Amino acid sequence: xxxxxxxxxxxxxxxxxxxxxxxAGRVLLQQRPRNKVHGGLWEFPGGKVEAGESCERALxxxxxxxxxxxxxxxxxxxxxxxxxxxxxxxxxxxLLLFGARNWHGEPRALEAGSTIAWVTRDEMVSLPxxxxxxxxxxAVIPFLEGVAKAETPP
Length: 154
Description:
Helices cover 20% and strands 26% of the residues.
C-alpha cells in the first residue's frame, strides 16, 4: 500500500446525516459526547463517508452503528446540504442531510456519552447545534409541519 500524502487527500470530507421522522411529527436528534468536537451540541446522526462507499450506504452503516436501527436505501431521500467555508488549516466538510420515515428497530444512543431525543419543531430550533446543522434544521421544518414528505421520489 502506498502511503498518502496530504496533497493526495481530497480537499472535501463528505459527511452524511439522517433526519428520522416519527408519526407524531418529531425528528430524532443526537447530542454529541462532551469529549468530542462540538461536544454537548445537538445534531442529526450520521458520519463520514468512507473510501469506495456511496453516500446512501454510508448513511445505512452510520445509522446502524450510532442508533442500532436499519434503514433501507429505498426509504431515504435527500433533503438539504451544508458546506463549511474554505480553510487553509483543514479539509472542508460537505454535510448531506437525508430523511426517512421508515426504519426497523428502536433508536438508541450507542456511542458512549451521546444522547438521543425525539423533538418537535420548536424544541429543535431552540437546541444548540454545530454550525453546519443549523441550516439543516431549518430545511427540516417543512417536514415537521407536514408541508413536505421525506419520501423517495418516483
